[in-house]
Design a protein that fits this description.
The structure holds two protein chains of two kinds.
Chain A: H1 6-41, H2 48-69, H3 77-99, H4 108-130, E1 146-148, E2 154-156, H5 157-179, H6 181-191, H7 193-198, H8 203-226, H9 235-250, H10 255-275, H11 278-295
Antiparallel strand pairs in A: 1-2
Chain B: E1 2-11, E2 14-24, E3 29-33, H1 40-48, E4 55-60, E5 63-64, H2 70-75, E6 78-81, H3 93-99, H4 101-104, H5 111-116, H6 118-122, H7 133-145, E7 151-155, H8 163-179, E8 183-188, H9 191-197, E9 200-205, E10 208-214, H10 220-227
Parallel strand pairs in B: 3-8, 3-9, 6-7, 7-8
Antiparallel strand pairs in B: 1-2, 1-4, 4-5, 9-10
Helix pairs in contact in B: 3-7, 8-9
The chains are: A mainly alpha, B alpha/beta.
């Protein structure tokens, strides 16, 4: 098939499958943030990709500072930078909610435009500060290289690290959503905002926290992203369409749905683009998603209860 | 306990509540009776703060809550059981009750709640949306009670519920009235239900109060006439 032998084909599937898993990791982190924001406030955050870029540039800047002033610290800085990426994106998200989003909650189309405008502004700010050329952070040596499973299969180490980060963050988000009182408030507000207020939940405060946490997770996605690709001012916006696809396909309020749909979309794209062209891979993925959404308009996983 | 004076509520330009004033005393159960479309639900929504009051004032235990948001009114001691129950369908029964405990800072669900509603204890791990109408009504009352309210508002608690369960709900409300130091205000169309629980009855018609009586003095045929279409 396609001029490959059976064992070649096996190796290709494993390696493309693994590069699909790296894509899956970034998409899932992005989709998690987008889904909890959309689920709770009905706000479609067009600037979500730029929060990812904030995380990526945070790693770049901290990497530079570490290399310049604390070179011995270089092998370990990445994990601290990860927290910094979350914190910075969280902070910017908090401010954006306070200054802009909260005034637009009752106007969904205006939020769409406003956050799109915000994304353009943020892209230009990145371009002004860091220049239009793509940059790569100084990654520690242990992140480089790959693990040769067999002669024909190479699994890159950075990909495995990205996956580990994704699983940890997803686990934390699930725990917070289902075990903490903040999660309970978020889920109550998601289901019925007026009634959540009428049982004593300060929904505006919950909104601000949720928006900031969603942006913070995008920042972590950006940090993970730096290990598999280089960062430019528009890196984030290239992911935003796929992220929306993941959220809609998975069912907007289901974390399990986000995981499953991020996995299938990332794998489909990664494996299809190897055998077809890049564009055809996307076309086929989109077509399948559209057909499935016609059959299940609420997404793959939506909670079934009496309404 | 709850003082409402000259309350006006409007949807846009059309005024629905025209200057209502009343006081509900400590430990009193007050029933507000009226036909559909007379403003019962609008009145209750403005008391809990889902609708803003155009004019007038609402005071709980002396403190003015007219300008407060819903959650602040709950902090001040108003609890609300809406028409149609409005429980959170995909949260479990236990989680539904816990949403009300943000305000009261309770660590765990008090035993007396499950004593009042044994069915909720049996169903505590089920999703709220999968309960029957009567069970959801009990859940909505439980969720309101864990906020430790001074005033409990119930908007048509018998709507869409079978007669035998209506009797249960009346018994539960009487029990709550006995156990707690609480003012209950209930809006209703079913006279037999309010006669079983209320100390005082008020009739609302086209957004104004037109009749008021203590239960002892109520002329049921007269009130039935107000309620019939």
């Amino acid at each position: 098939m396609f001029g490959y032998s059976v064992s070649d084909l096996g190796s290709i599937v494993v390696m493309q499958g693994f590069s699909g898993l790296s894509l899956f990791s970034v998409l899932l982190l992005m989709a998690l943030g987008l889904a909890i924001i959309f689920g709770q406030m009905g706000v479609i955050n067009m600037a979500h990709g730029e929060f990812m870029t904030i995380g990526a540039y945070t790693i770049y800047v901290l990497g530079k500072i570490t290399a310049e002033y604390f070179p011995t610290f270089l092998p370990y800085y990445f994990f601290f930078a990860l927290f910094a990426a979350f914190a910075l994106a969280f902070l910017v998200g908090y401010l954006v909610e306070y200054l802009m989003i909260r005034h637009l909650y009752k106007r969904p189309l205006d939020t769409l435009l406003a956050t799109w405008g915000l994304s353009l502004i943020m892209q230009q700010i990145f371009r002004t500060i860091f220049g239009g050329r793509e940059v790569s952070p100084n990654l520690p040596d242990w992140l480089m290289g790959s693990w040769s499973v067999t002669d024909t299969i190479d699994i890159p180490i950075n990909g495995m690290v990205v996956m580990a980060i994704t699983f940890a963050v997803t686990g934390l988000v699930v725990m917070f959503m289902f075990r903490s009182s903040w999660g309970l408030k978020v889920r109550a507000t998601t289901q019925n905002r007026l009634m959540a207020g009428a049982v004593g939940i300060n929904t505006k405060k919950v909104d601000r926290m949720t928006f900031a946490v969603g942006c913070g997770i995008a920042g972590v996605a950006g940090a993970a992203f730096t290990t598999i690709a280089s960062t430019g001012p528009t890196s984030g916006s290239q992911y935003i369409v796929d992220t929306f696809l993941v959220v809609v396909f998975g069912g907007a309020t289901s974390i399990l749905g986000a995981i499953a749909s991020a996995f299938s979309i990332a794998q489909a794209q990664s494996i299809l683009t190897f055998f077809l062209t890049n564009a055809m891979g996307k076309v086929v993925t989109l077509l399948v998603v559209i057909v499935i959404l016609m059959l299940r308009p609420e997404g793959l996983f939506s909670s079934k209860v009496r309404k | 306990m709850l003082e409402v004076s000259d309350l006006h509520v409007s949807y846009g330009q059309s005024e629905v509540i025209h200057g209502i004033s009343f006081t509900a005393r400590d430990n009193e159960t007050l029933a507000i009776m009226g036909r559909n479309g007379m403003g019962k639900t609008t009145l209750f929504k403005s008391l809990i703060g889902i609708l803003a009051a155009g004019k007038g004032s609402i005071k709980v235990d002396g403190s003015d809550v007219t300008k407060n948001e819903s959650y602040q009114r709950v902090e001040n001691g108003i609890a609300y059981v809406p028409q149609g129950r409005m429980i959170f369908p995909t949260l479990t029964v236990e989680e539904n009750i816990k949403t009300g405990m943000e305000v009261s800072k309770l660590e765990r669900i008090p035993d007396d709640i499950f004593a009042l509603f044994p069915v909720l204890y049996d169903m505590r791990h089920r999703k709220g949306g999968n309960l029957s109408g009567g069970q959801q009504q009990q859940l909505a009352i439980a969720r309101a009670l864990v906020t430790n309210p001074k005033v409990l508002l119930l908007d048509e608690p018998t709507e869409g519920i079978q007669p035998s369960i209506i009797k249960d709900i009346a018994n539960i409300l009487n029990e709550i009235h006995k156990l707690r130091d609480i003012t209950i205000i209930v809006s209703e169309q079913v006279l037999s239900f309010t006669m079983a629980i209320a100390n005082r009855l008020i009739v609302i018609d086209k957004g104004s109060f037109i009749h008021e009586d203590l239960r002892e003095n109520v002329d049921t045929t007269q009130i039935s006439k107000y309620l019939s279409v």
